[in-house]
Known about the structure:
- This protein is mainly beta.
- It folds into two domains: 18-181, Immunoglobulins (Immunoglobulin-like, Sandwich), CATH 2.60.40; 185-286, Immunoglobulin-like (Sandwich).
- Helix content is 0%, strand content 56%.
- It is built from no helices and 22 strands.
- Strand 16 (188-198) and strand 17 (201-210) form a beta hairpin.
Amino acid sequence: MRTPCPPPRRRPLATAARVATSLAAVLLWGAATAQPAAAPAAPFEVAASPSRLELRAQPGQRLGQSLRIYNVGNQVSTLAFRTMDWSLAESGELRFHNELLPGSCRPWVALERKTRQLAARANEPYRFQVSVPADAPKGECRFMIAIEGVDPAQVSALNSGGTTLSLPVSGRIAITVYVAVGGAKPQLELVRVGTDSLKNQRRPVVVVRNTGDAHGRLDGALNVRDAEGKALELVPEGAPVLPGQTRTLGLSVRDKEGQAAPLRFPLQVSGTLDWDEGAFKVEATLQ
């Protein structure tokens, strides 16, 4: 039996936003289909903080924001900056789009500059502005700021014939920016808690529907007793649920020390999952 419980005390959210404090991950990609062999690391040793910005704005408002860019390597890095659109399928497939998607808010965004050199072991702020049009409808503006290495590195790889190739490989960091315009907010519904086959493994999952006009996320942890009476926790995947989506999110299992642990069904599950505007109380048996 799953019943909604009263919203928790609302966490403060300034106009500038809640921001994640972890450094963004570096993504590497190659220009040919090959299996990488042992090779020196690409000299793209750059990080950025925060990895995500969640902002609020009203129509006609201009938001000034900044990131901090870190060069953690021992060489000068020449970086290029641009905006990108992105899409996220209900299955979790993420795609980047250089072209403007329908309804894109990237024309609202002004970047401080297109290129910059960052000295070794240095860090500097990088600024951008979002100018929301006065006639902007209520909803969520979503885009990414891509930070890319200008000079690709040469990395050795083996092709299907066993020949060693030298491939240009570049680095990219993608910072996600959300702007909730005109009071847009998520409205999450807990559809079910159960089990599904994810990546050919039986896993506990939670199915969540978003009928609001901004993205939402689940937080918190559920208490579990497995078939042997061991106390565990189930933690929901922190991926966004975009407006209009119904997503199946995996629940990761860990022991009370925070370490990954095996599952022994059936599971007695109880506890509360939080989200931005409320919480869900869960009581279930997973067979």
